[in-house]
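Q: What does the predicted 3D structure of Rrf2 family transcriptional regulator look like?
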Amino acid sequence: MRISAKAEYAVRAAAELATGGETPMPAEALARAAGVPHRFLEGILTDLRREGLVLSRRGAGGGHLLARPAERVTIADVIRAVEGPLVFVRDERPGEIAYQGAAAILPQVWVALRANVRAVLEQVTLADLAAGHVPGVVADLTSDEDAWRNP
């Protein structure tokens, strides 16, 4: 699985918004805080607004803020807002693909992959990121040194 720059930038920016609570953050300040190129961030904010994750306020004291509490926004929500479904195989949903022969059961592998990706990304909220911790089940997955290595 590959996390795109757009998805990663979106999560970083959303996490910064989570630290601001109900105070709107101007896009320029958000870009600096998240370490995201400002021009790229504008498109991300458009996607997040369209999906109902971010609100924007105009005028003096305006900016962007989360549309709902950070505890109710997961990393999966943010990634879906900017990229669509979490796991695609050749631009198709894993359960909609059929193979023949020895690969006939491969859709089960793709669906299992999606289930595991969801199990992690739907557990971690923006509030978790803002607080600097992840839920125990996610932390447990990283406790093995092999989890940090690429084979």
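A (community wiki): The structure tokens above were generated from the sequence. The longest helix spans residues 106-121. Strands lie at 54-57, 63-66.
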